[in-house]
Design brief:
mainly alpha; Recoverin, domain 1; globular
């Protein structure tokens, strides 16, 4: 289950705090649905979780987009900063989240899957600041 918690895109942040059983179940269901939809393997999910972004293919990138969309963080390839702050601020602290948002939220890819993947990578790589 921890794999799916971390895959909650920005969930590197959530891994540092205790989630309720209800939150864990919701994260797991979103991750499962997106993994099935995009055809992501367990190995690909584990690589994403561990920050191994080098071999990410289009399926992994679209998995990131699916998850971020189902979580409400991204809509039609556009990050929703207010949603990110509302969901992660109480967990990690609003000021810390805003610092990472300033670094990450302007990233754009060639399409919505690449954009979401770049956002995930940025948040993952800056998780120590949160």
């Amino acid at each position: 289950m921890k794999v799916f918690i971390i895959l909650a895109a920005f969930a590197a942040l959530a891994a540092a705090v205790e989630l309720t059983e209800e939150q864990r179940a919701a994260v797991k269901e979103r991750a499962k649905a997106c993994a099935q939809q995009e055809g992501v393997t367990k190995e690909q999910a584990q690589a994403l979780r561990s920050g191994n972004f080098a071999d990410a293919d289009d399926k992994v990138k679209c998995f990131a987009n699916c998850f971020l969309e189902k979580s409400g963080f991204v809509v039609d390839g556009q990050i929703k900063p207010d949603v990110v702050l509302a969901k992660l601020g109480p967990i990690a602290g609003e000021d810390k989240v805003k610092v990472v948002q300033a670094k990450c939220d302007s990233l754009k890819g060639a399409n919505k899957c690449e954009t979401s993947f770049e956002l995930y990578k940025c948040y993952h790589n800056n998780q120590a600041q949160i």
